[in-house]
Amino acid sequence: MKKFIILIIFYVFSLSLFAQQYEAVKKFDPTRSPEKDLKIAVEYAQKTNKRILLDVGGEWCIWCHRMDEFIESHKEIKEFLEKHFVVVKVNYSKENKNEKFLSNYPQIPGYPHIFVLDKDGKFLHSQDTGVLEKDKDYDEIKFMEFLQKWALK
């Protein structure tokens, strides 16, 4: 019985350590491996019961930066996103189009683009972010509705 309790304590402790070690990538980086990033995200999503958002774009993309700034400036959206999703930035640029990785998903009509995956990395949804826009920014209501629709209940 004592060994069982120690094993449970070790397991809980290791989960909290892993949860603290995951850090989302903040920029699109042509040198990163989306395969490796997704593998780490899946492990974290399984342990934390979250879905995965693949955020596809590049540092060249003004709307990609607008989306990042939009999320950062809307506390409710940022907190909901962090609570329910693991975000993986996937670079698409002249330097690295990540064609092999992206060939696993539907064709992308424009950037940024979001793919929703379940916690095991299985594809669920392809989201054109253009429909989430309003004027020269994103629409808070549409963006939150999108996140709420795809968050695990």
TrEMBL record:
Keyword terms of this UniProt record: Isomerase, Signal
SUPFAM superfamilies documented for this protein: Thioredoxin-like
Lineage: superkingdom: Bacteria
InterPro entries according to UniProt: AGR/TXD, Thioredoxin-like_sf, Thioredoxin_domain
Name of the protein described by the UniProt record: Thiol-disulfide isomerase/thioredoxin domain protein
PANTHER family named among the record's database cross-references: ANTERIOR GRADIENT PROTEIN-RELATED, THIOREDOXIN DOMAIN-CONTAINING PROTEIN
Start and end residues of each Thioredoxin domain: 22-152
Annotated signal sequence range: 1-19
GO molecular function: isomerase activity
